[in-house]
Amino acid sequence: MGVIPRSAYPDTLKNMGSPPPKLFVRGRFPAPMMDQKYLCVVGSRRWTSYGRECVRRLVSGLAGYPVTIVSGLAIGIDSIAHIAALEAGLHCVGFPGSSLDWDEIYPEKHLGLAKRIVASGGALLSAWEPGYPTGNWAFPARNRLMAGLSHAVLIIEAGQGSGSLMTAKHAEDFNRDVFAVPGQIREPQSYGTHMLIKNGAALISSSRDILIQLGFNVPRSTQKNEQMNGKVIGQKSSEIFLPSAVTKDDVSMSIMKVLMLEDATADYLLDKTCLKVQTLNEKLSLLELEGLIKIEGPTISLVRN
Fold first, then answer.
1. Nearest to 106, CA basis, from 87, 119, 124
2. Tens digits of per-residue pLDDT, 92-124?
């Protein structure tokens, strides 16, 4: 773990207004390229399958461009954005709502994702030194830093009163661009994005929209890059998209094949897959992070589109 003084901040952080005197860091920061654009991607913790697919499609279409994905490591759209960025080979910056001690990372269930970000060449940032207690007060401060670092903020699903709307407000205060993805009108998670669009946020329907808004010269053929790597399994009425990281993992696929047939308990999966308990738990955590399964009490089931 290192410390970054204010003098070494990227220009965005220096110009945000009252930046913290220092930041704690794990991993590679600033981004590896001088002309890097920082895009903050945030949204609802109670995501829908539509929101998840929007994140995957939009972020995957940024592959090959000097874009860093910034998010809060939170449950929901934030963690889905981190995972999509890692899948696309993009530089990634996570802001946990805590210090950067591995024993203090919040949320605790995303410790594996935090380590994966650092191992991939990305970074974790925090204004709080090790041992500093966290709490609900930390999230508005964290959201302010994410908006301050970023050139633009992209909101994908945000219910009324969502913390993502606070991040968008900070972005406006810092004269950053605000982007929003239109949602399904019947979903409460669409409230925030529709409100932002009505108030002047750029409507985003493709990765190309994002790249143009960030100032890149993008040929129209880039739209085909939004097709996600991986494959779809299941019947058309209940298809499930599996990212390449899952399809290339025989252990994860063995679990998915059982769950395609029926919901299961951990004990049932242990019996069917012959895995060790620790291995099963690790794979279930990763599949849950990918938004492919949900665990409710003892029952484990697929998240179907």
1. 124
2. 999 998 999 998 998 888 999 999 999 999 999
Pick left, alpha or beta for residue 17 (phi over 0 → left; psi -120 to 50 → alpha; otherwise beta).
left
Q: What is the CA radius of gyration of the chain?
A: 19
Confidence (pTM): 0.74
E strands along 74-217, which residues? 91-94, 123-126, 152-156, 177-180, 202-203
Band of residue 305 on the pLDDT scale cut at 50, 70, 90: low
Domain residue limits at 287: 230-302
CA distance 96 to 241: 28
Contacts of 186 (CB under 8 A, 6+ apart): none
Residues 191 and 295 in one domain: no
Single residue among 197, 226, 255 that ends a domain in this structure = 226
Among the three residues 194, 226, 258, which one is the final residue of a domain in this structure?
226
Percent above pLDDT 70 for the chain: 91
Beta carbons within 10 angstroms of residue 230's beta carbon = 17
- Establish how many alpha carbons lie within 13 A of residue 136's alpha carbon, considering only the half-sphere containing its beta carbon: 1
